[in-house]
Amino acid sequence: MTYQAFYRVYRPQSFREMSGQSHVKRTLQNALLANKTTHAYLFSGPRGTGKTSTAKVFAKALNCEHAPTDEPCNECATCLSITNGSHPDVIEFDAASNSRVEEMREIIEKVRFAPASARFKVYIIDEVHMLSTSAFNALLKTLEEPPAHVVFILATTEPHKLPATIISRCQRFDFKRLSSIDLLERMKVVLEDIELPYDEQALKVISQSAAGGMRDALSMLDQVVSFSGDKLTLDDALFVTGSISQDVFYDLAKALSEKDIAQVLALLEKLISEGKDAVRLSEDLITFFRDLLLIQTAPGLEDLLELASSDEKFKTIANQFTMDTLYGYVDILSKTQQEMRFSHHSKIYLETALLKMAQFAPGQSIIQTNSQMMMQAAGESPNVEVLEAKIASLEEIVHQLQQGGMQQHNAAPAQQRQRPKVDSGVKINVGRIQEVLKVATKKDLQMIKSAWADVINQLQRSQSALLEEAEPVAATSNAFVLKLKQAVYCTIGTNNGTFSAMTTILQQLTGSTYEVVVVPEENWLKIRTDYIRQHGLGKQVTSSEESPEDHINESTESLFVEEQIISEDPLVVEAEKIFGKDFVEVVED
């Protein structure tokens, strides 16, 4: 007989053998005893948590020759045939490889026939979210009103992909990730059955790597058993799973408590050189410092420790940190982990996080930690007296500015009212915008707009998303005004290099170097209105007489006049309402 993997050999064959999921077991067993089983069930939850196994056990209990019963006997012919997958009335259907409507119609056609030898005909549809829309529609009516002898059990890892009409016709059971204790107990049963000695700490390493999935835990256990010799040891489990030993975490925590930055970075470099993943390492560090918090706050809950143990050395190192420090470490690592997911330089992020942790002090923010690191990198040491003097000086300057601003407000309130409102602290260069408007031409603006789509396509996704609602509104041969939807986009675009990248791409496309002058939409409307009013551009020029404002460029004037005429055209206004401004283009005859 060929060798079978642990997760197949030790698949539970009764509710009693199932690990965890007590809320599911109790509900199903009560329904079996009371003969109150329904026609459709939905089992949803993460992979390896027992959905398909529960479906098979439930099918056996429904059709057991000793029914009604809350446990299948696993001895009658029906139970044995369902166990080995040969019973004609228990049909397993894999929706991942049979997602078309034709396969679903074959099932529906056979539903009306009575069971061959069992009480119920049970259809177990695995990965049901993979069915096509037409297959769901074909299943819907049968699922709503099936024959009395049919039971559907739908299993999925992604219930949000199922139509609401399907979910509403099923009894839904949500399977949870299994606890470390559940995984440990099951692995002990397996190792005792094969009579292999083991180190319990090795099982904890496997349990932590499995992340709540029984199938993953048993698969990794199978690998470690194959790798190990006469005994399953901690080193074997660490090597096969790629995890890190407790001693390394202890050394790292000790170096952090002593603020030995060289040792911290050396340990990290060693782990990375051994092939450890930086993202996975950050997750393990969060778990380790969580364990230290648990040792401090709840020393009696030793069974909940995952990476640390209840040894005296871990209790000692845990007490060397204050709770605020441990909370700060977890906070730094959590934020760093989020940033690492969007970067290819995860090691650098983790190094920076460890440096922040080494400089962290209770009651200190992460910004203060960064400031200290910068001062030390520049060879400076923070002097409390100097810092206090600087703070006092800054407070005095702020006070003087506030007094001067108040006097200016009292002296010229009208002038202040004329200034465009600036939002979110963004500085708008009104003077530069007006300079661009003085010499702006329609031809230059069309040049920018004709290349705009290519510019957006060549930017990074995060940068192009920032410019989705942006629009060039005025341009010269070497500068253009870019209108943004919100003021905060100006700051973000400057900080992440969007505008500099945009000018580089424009230079490649047009051969000209442009200066970008950004302005939020509400500020642009104010600046544009003031400019039109000040230079008399709101009136259409109907005679050949020269405008009194001789220094205004004729192209700029015609641009504003044309924009005003277009905006007042009722046909254009109605078209923009229907299709949106981005899809309406006015072409001159």
From TrEMBL:
Top enzyme class: transferase
Keywords tagged on the record: ATP-binding, DNA replication, DNA-directed DNA polymerase, Metal-binding, Nucleotide-binding, Nucleotidyltransferase, Transferase, Zinc
Pfam families linked to this entry: DNA_pol3_delta2, DNA_pol3_gamma3, DNAX_ATPase_lid
Enzyme Commission number(s): 2.7.7.7
Transmembrane portions of the chain: none
Highest rank taxon of the organism: Bacteria
Annotated ranges, domain AAA+ ATPase: 37-179
InterPro entries: AAA+_ATPase, ClpA/B, DNA_pol3_clamp-load_cplx_C, DNA_pol_III_gamma-3, DNA_pol_III_sug/sutau_N, DNA_Rep/Repair_Clamp_Loader, HLD_clamp_pol_III_gamma_tau, P-loop_NTPase
GO molecular function: DNA-directed DNA polymerase activity
Reaction equations catalysed: DNA(n) + a 2'-deoxyribonucleoside 5'-triphosphate = DNA(n+1) + diphosphate
SMART domains for this protein: AAA
Family as reported in the entry's similarity comment: Belongs to the DnaX/STICHEL family.
The protein's name in its UniProt record: DNA-directed DNA polymerase
Organism: Viridibacillus soli
